[in-house]
User: Which sequence fits this backbone?
């Protein structure tokens, strides 16, 4: 897998995201309450600290031991304890159900609906995060099962609204502009008014 996602501004970190499905899945997991670059840079930090990004090895670690790695300065997230536990949970699912590899989650999947279902079953992957990840796989990684656009919802369209639409500095700026405009209009990424 070699994709076109450009998000962290760090060539090595982006390279890891584009060739390692587990890194990409964990980057998306971390993408909440922190800047996108920080979230998607997290997997590279983890790999540097652990010497690997093997879901089976992470799942085999004691949770507290893994959280300590996530909490080292600079921490992998604004909330390293909660997100460290969540990463450990996702790695446990990958180890138990997908032979330790995130890419097996989408390998051979024959419909967007099934891909969405598998993602939505993961700890920390709610509706929006699952839809965005379907769009990331389709738009930047060439994983396009039948019906992926429906499964991605609004994130499957051509409006630069999420990380799925970022393949360089220009598209990163467009996504930021769009998010800023949505915030000003009190709307969310799916164009719905925010209560």
Assistant:
């Amino acid at each position: 897998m070699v994709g076109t996602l450009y998000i962290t501004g760090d060539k090595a970190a982006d390279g890891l995201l584009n060739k390692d499905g587990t890194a990409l899945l964990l980057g998306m997991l971390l993408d909440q309450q922190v800047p996108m670059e920080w979230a998607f840079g997290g997997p590279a930090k983890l790999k540097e600290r652990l010497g690997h990004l093997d879901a089976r090895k992470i799942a085999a670690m004691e949770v507290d031991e893994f959280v300590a790695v996530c909490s080292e300065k600079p921490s992998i997230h604004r909330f390293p304890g909660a997100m460290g536990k969540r990463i450990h949970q996702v790695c446990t699912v990958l180890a138990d159900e997908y032979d330790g590899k995130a890419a097996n989650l989408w390998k051979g999947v024959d419909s967007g609906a099934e891909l969405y279902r598998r993602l939505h079953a993961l700890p920390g992957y709610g509706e929006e995060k699952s839809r965005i990840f379907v769009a990331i796989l389709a738009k930047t990684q060439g994983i396009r099962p039948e019906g992926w656009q429906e499964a991605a919802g609004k994130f499957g369209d051509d409006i630069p609204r999420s990380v799925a639409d970022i393949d360089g500095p220009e598209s990163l700026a467009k996504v930021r502009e769009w998010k800023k405009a949505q915030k000003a209009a009190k709307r969310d990424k799916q164009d719905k008014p925010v209560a």
User: Anything to note?
Assistant: Residues 89 and 96 are 11 Å apart (CA to CA). The chain has a mean pLDDT of 93. The first helix runs from residue 11 to 19. The chain has one domain: 11-183.
